[in-house]
From TrEMBL:
Residue span(s) of domain S1 motif: 3-65, 70-132, 145-207
Protein name: GntR family transcriptional regulator
Signal peptide range in chain numbering: none
A Pfam family assignment: WHD_CvfB
PANTHER family: CONSERVED VIRULENCE FACTOR B
Listed GO MF terms: nucleic acid binding
Length: 278
């Protein structure tokens, strides 16, 4: 079954001067892949990985280009035009993505970037964007486990922290105390389920909980020391930014980890940095 707004693997069924036609099944028939996108050496019956969408004439068409997002995903996109229908955002394809006025939480302005969710509109069957995320998230009960790794998209900044989309299906909260590094709207990153609350809400973390977090960082520090000849110019007095740039972790976790390595006599901590004990 063809998935509009997503990548599909389809066989070549016909060659023409202006491209090739791919088998779109009974629903869509033959789908054109324009000549400029046809890989060199393509022959009949070859299977091609293509993205399926609607062109400027509202015909189903294929491309080998990679859009900035697919249906069911979030993306931070720039508004390139507005008119009486809505806003049009650049998503990396010749035809811009429409965000109707009815799907805008705030009126979009040309030149600004917005985090949007891509979906198929049931009424028109077209691919559109929306900033009304509550329509798409928390539609099913969460079944995550504490400590499970998940994909996050930062969607909003709040007084408590950052509201994130979890695996594109649920809302979760990343408390400011749990953050490190630079976070911004639209940033995609890996995180962990910190807590599943009784009210159904999800607390998030950017690091594994407890011993697993420290063990992973211990391995990273020892490996880095070995590669750098047994010395790194960083200590528990270093700035959070310096520690994050080296190990993508918070200063608190770094301090606990090198403290444990020191007690295990695997490193020495001096004023100028840490040393590998051989």
């Amino acid at each position: 079954m063809i998935k509009i707004g997503q990548r599909n693997t389809l066989p070549v069924v016909k060659e023409v001067d202006f491209g090739v036609f791919l088998d779109g099944g009974d629903e869509y028939g033959n789908i054109l892949l324009p000549k400029r996108y046809v890989p060199k050496g393509t022959q009949l019956d070859d299977e091609l990985d293509v993205f399926i969408y609607f062109d400027s004439e509202d015909d189903v068409i294929a491309t080998t280009e990679e859009p900035l997002a697919q249906v069911g995903q979030f993306a931070l996109l720039r508004c390139v035009n507005t008119n009486r229908v809505g806003a049009f955002l650049n998503w990396g394809l010749p035809k811009d993505l429409l965000v109707p006025f009815s799907e805008q939480r705030i009126k979009m302005q040309e030149g600004r970037e917005y985090l949007v969710f891509l979906y198929l509109d049931n009424a028109s069957g077209r691919i559109v964007g929306s900033t009304k995320f509550n329509k798409f998230l928390d539609k099913m009960p969460a079944s995550y486990k504490q400590g499970e790794q998940v994909d996050l998209v930062v969607a909003e900044s709040t007084d408590l922290g950052f509201k994130c989309a979890v695996n594109g299906q649920h809302w979760g909260l990343l408390y400011r105390a749990e953050t490190f590094g630079k976070l911004f709207i639209g940033k995609k990153l890996k995180g962990f389920i910190r807590n599943l609350r009784d009210d159904g809400k999800i607390d998030l973390s950017l690091q594994k909980a407890g011993k697993g977090k420290v063990d992973d960082l211990s391995d990273k520090i020892l490996t880095a020391l070995d590669k750098k000849g047994g010395f790194l110019p960083v200590t528990d007095k270093s700035s959070p930014d310096q520690i994050f740039s080296l190990f993508r972790t918070s200063k608190a976790t770094f301090k606990r980890t090198i403290g444990a390595l020191y007690k295990q006599r695997k490193i020495r901590i001096e004023n100028d940095g840490i040393y590998l004990v051989k």
